[in-house]
Amino acid sequence: MFLILLESDGLTIITGCSHRGILNIVKTAIDITGINTIKGLIGGFHLFRNSEDEITEIAEKINSSNVEHIITGHCTGLNGLFLLKNICKSKITPIKAGLTLTLNQP
């Protein structure tokens, strides 16, 4: 299950845990809306059981799609977060208690 925030300049996708795969979720959001600009991905990416090669491939695909903000937590796993951070650099923010997000700023 995921939520699509449709904004004038792209999509923000919010997921609890990406059991069906974060790349599948992104593809479905694009298919539903017809918009391929992803401003943000927020949620757990369910990578804690994936191999380093699988996580690297996912991170490279996310990074090449020009997502502006990637805010990920719990089921992404520490290894997933580390590998995403190495590839996506400053786009990554880990979810933690007290994190406040402001979306759709003018």
Automatic annotation (TrEMBL):
One of its GO terms (molecular function) is transferase activity. It comes from the Bacteria. InterPro entries: Metallo-beta-lactamase_dom, RibonucZ/Hydroxyglut_hydro. This is MBL fold metallo-hydrolase. It comes from Flexistipes sinusarabici.
